[in-house]
């Protein structure tokens, strides 16, 4: 078969065309395959993004069919997404889904959207679950999803809603707290305020308004009235600016006028970020006063502790020394440098140990560690320290509430010595008690026999077993009554013991035992409430007492006879003495004829002796009367100045004869004195005569009269040879005696005149005192009542 060339060309052209078409088809298919793979990957990525997105799409067709992911089914509490919308309704306890009311509302919203194309936003709740779903619906694009399908975007708003509700709750709480805080600030008793960032007052409470003396807060804010005056040229705003700049709370203490009175306030400015400055004022007037009072109390307490005999030392919480009194420093030889350096507790113990002021211990570090526990003890601790020098210390460690410690050191060395001495005294007392000649017994306040000595049992002839039973008084007296000569007199002993025990009065008595022994007894109340019963055997002294009584009666009788004899003899002596004096005067006047010079001397001597003897007789008579209390007195008011002048005038010749110097001092207030002029002249005359005659030639006599309280004080002194002490004592005691030459008075002068002077002064109700010293002089002090 022959193929034409035309046909061959056409065939080739067809084959070429087919080949080109096949190539294009292959290329196109490869390109589409590549695009499909790309779209498939994108689809998977988008599907993954949708699955992981917090918002899931749900397509609801017009016939109610659903298109969505399986994740939505789990959101609705189902195993899988149902095919139709109606199946999302909760149908009882076995299933879940949307609650009935929310399902109806969602159904109506979807229908409305499918009809009108309007969107909606709705929250639905999943049955038997806390999950809440936020659904936003719109009409799907007809180009992609024809048939009026509704596209729902579902968002799991459970967590967000809970947060919203919590935020709402927190907002309500914050609102209520703010209202409460505002009410609290308003009701606060302290002034409070708030400044904005430009430091202007925008809020003040009622206390602030009252403090500045206004009634309206708005007026205070409008006038920018500050609570306190500027301090050191700086206003309150300047201090608030410091707080804002530093970002730290600023405090200062100032004085301000509050409610019309000056008070001490602590001003506090509190920065509140960039929102301004809050401030408040605390009245610290009472606190400041309390601090001052506490400071004064502490100083007074430390002054008091410094005056204690016990050593006191105080440490703070970090165990540093903060106080020690003078007694502690002396007791432990503490240096001031240690105190100034705030020495630590352990170091102080080391220093005390170095000075030998701590007890000797084998392991000092362990001992010191135990004492350090004093800071942590709940109660006080007490110890006794015996130092190397024999000092006994009582140590009390008192922990303080602030963690510190106070130590008290009481030196009990003397107490220990006293206790030792007491034990010794008790032993001595026991030995002495048993060896006394007196029978002793001590009864306790309850009436029981407490102590007795050996002689008590021997005197009463009572067995030791009876006394060792410590019988009561009544029981013991029943036994003792059998030993009395007259048993009924035991009641007297009982009354004496009862009086000493109950009435605390000491009484005594005498008793006689059956063995004819006589005892003098007494019951003495003791300070501790006990009663001491003593018995002294006076049997041997009875005869002596009787003899002494008879002798005393004889002495009294002799004294009476002596006084009668002196009185009688004084009167009897006057008659012959008067005759002798009269005849001597007649001889001296020449009635018996002229006398020779020797005879005149003899007659003159006789007259002087008569005069002297007459004075002595009168003195003895007056002294006897004064001792008997029968000395007559006739009192009258006499000027003491005139009285003394007359006394000296009578003795002027004798004073000039001896060349004496008399110094008289009479105070202007001496005045008058009530005396018997004759008797007092006799008394003072004896004193003056004693000085004039016995101080030698050219002596000095001093007389001083002045008023003393309600009395006249008269002093007469001389610079004579003085008197022996025994004679001075006898005169001051009212004993009339005379000196003799061996006692230092070569003239043997009598003391009768001074003794009479004393009796006359005493009869006037005055006082008489003689003071004298050999080779120095004599002084007589007379005090007479006005």
UniProtKB/TrEMBL annotation:
Chain ranges of the Histidine kinase domain: 568-786
Report the superkingdom from the record: Bacteria
Query: Record's Gene3D superfamilies?
Result: 1.10.287.130, Histidine kinase-like ATPase, C-terminal domain, PAS domain
Query: EC number(s) in its UniProt entry?
Result: 2.7.13.3
Q: Which biological process annotations from GO are given for this protein?
A: regulation of DNA-templated transcription
List the NCBIfam families hit by this protein, alphabetically: sensory_box
Mind telling me what this protein is named?
histidine kinase
